């Protein structure tokens, strides 16, 4: 039985999720579109902005593990496929580039299982 998260804990989780998604999109854009570190192509910048908006409006942040496990998919089909492509490419690379973020993200997901 898990305890309820405070508003501060929910916002911290939301912030961590934004950071992880942004780093994943950045890694994808750098690898697939050849952009420089710290910058995004217009397509990936739109995806990052969209993902940030969806994360900021997620009503299930306190109880969900990962967006892929959520019973409500709030991304449009086009953006959902784009973010899946990003995660498929960047996920394995994140362990080498941002191991602390990956471990923390995994722990956030395991807390509710």
Automatic annotation (TrEMBL):
Pfam families: YgbA_NO. This is Nitrous oxide-stimulated promoter family protein.
């Amino acid at each position: 039985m898990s305890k309820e998260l405070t508003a501060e804990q929910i916002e911290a989780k939301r912030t961590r999720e934004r950071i992880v998604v942004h780093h994943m999109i950045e890694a994808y854009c750098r690898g697939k579109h050849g952009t420089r570190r710290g910058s995004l192509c217009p397509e990936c910048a739109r995806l990052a902005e969209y993902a940030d908006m969806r994360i900021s409006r997620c009503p299930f942040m306190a109880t969900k593990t990962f967006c892929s496990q959520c019973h409500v998919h709030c991304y449009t089909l086009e953006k959902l496929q784009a973010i899946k492509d990003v995660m498929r490419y960047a996920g394995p690379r994140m362990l080498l580039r941002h191991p602390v973020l990956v471990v923390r993200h995994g722990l956030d997901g395991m807390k509710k299982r």
